[in-house]
Design brief:
The mean pLDDT is 89. 27% of the residues lie in helices and 20% in strands. By secondary structure, the chain is of the alpha+beta class. The longest helix is centred in the C-terminal third of the chain and has 17 residues, at 171-187. α3 (141-155) packs across α4. The N and C termini lie far apart (57 Å). The chain has helices at 83-95, 123-128, 141-155, 171-187; strands at 5-10, 14-25, 28-34, 48-51, 101-104, 107-110.
C-alpha cells in the first residue's frame, strides 16, 4: 500500500488527496497530504496518521490514475467510484474553467460558477447539439434539451427534465438555458 494515492477525510474541505507512507495495521496508515491542483502546488511537509478502520473495507479510498487536467467528462469512466473521487473530478472540472458540466451516464451535473461563461452558450454551440451525438460533444445542458426533443419526436410521448439543487445552485438559470435551447431546436425543425 506504500506509495498509493488515496483520499483522507479533512474537516476543512471534506476530503484531501494524500500519498500513503506506510501501513500501521488495524486500518491505520501514515500519509502525506497533498495540495489540490489549484492551490499552486503547495506541498504538505508533514506526515500524519489516519484511521480508516471505520471506512468501507477498512481502507482509504483510492484516487483515479491518469486524471486529465480538466477531469473526466463522464464520471462513469472513473476507475474508482466513491464520494471523494466524484467530488475530486467535479472540483478539477470546475477549476479548469469553462467546464461547469459533467455527465454521469445520462445525467448532466451542473456546478454553478456564479459567473457567466458566454463561450458555452454561443449560436455555434447551440447548433452543435442540434444533431445529438453526445459521445462527440463536451458535457452540456444542451444535450439534455436535445435528448428531450428527440424523445418527443421519436416516441410522440411527453418528456420530463428534472432540474434539482440547493437554493442558489442555479436551477432557474439552467431551466432558462434548457427552455431557450428547446425553442431553438423546435424552430430548426
Amino acid at each position: 500500500m506504500e506509495g498509493a494515492k488515496v483520499y483522507i477525510q479533512d474537516a476543512k474541505s471534506g476530503w484531501n488527496r494524500a500519498t500513503v507512507e506506510g501501513a500501521l495495521g488495524g486500518g491505520r496508515y501514515t500519509v502525506r497530504p497533498e495540495a489540490w491542483e489549484e492551490d499552486d502546488g503547495a506541498v504538505q511537509e508533514k506526515t500524519i496518521e489516519v484511521d480508516a478502520s471505520n471506512m468501507e473495507g477498512g481502507m482509504l479510498p483510492f484516487q483515479n490514475a491518469n486524471m486529465p487536467d480538466n477531469g473526466f467528462p463522464d464520471m462513469t469512466t472513473l476507475d474508482h467510484l466513491h464520494e471523494p473521487a466524484l467530488l475530486h473530478n467535479l472540483r478539477r472540472r470546475f477549476f479548469a474553467q469553462a467546464c461547469s458540466y459533467t455527465y454521469t451516464a445520462d445525467i448532466v451535473i451542473a456546478m454553478n460558477p456564479y459567473r457567466w461563461f458566454p463561450q458555452l452558450y454561443t449560436e455555434e454551440k447551440r447548433k452543435e447539439y442540434l444533431v445529438f451525438d453526445r459521445s462527440k460533444l463536451e458535457p452540456h445542458v444542451y444535450a439534455t434539451s436535445s435528448a428531450a426533443y428527440a424523445g418527443l419526436q421519436e416516441t410522440k410521448t411527453n418528456q420530463t427534465v428534472l432540474v434539482s439543487g440547493e437554493s442558489g445552485a442555479g436551477k432557474t438559470e439552467t431551466v432558462k438555458i434548457l427552455m431557450g435551447h428547446l425553442a431553438f431546436v423546435a424552430s430548426s425543425d
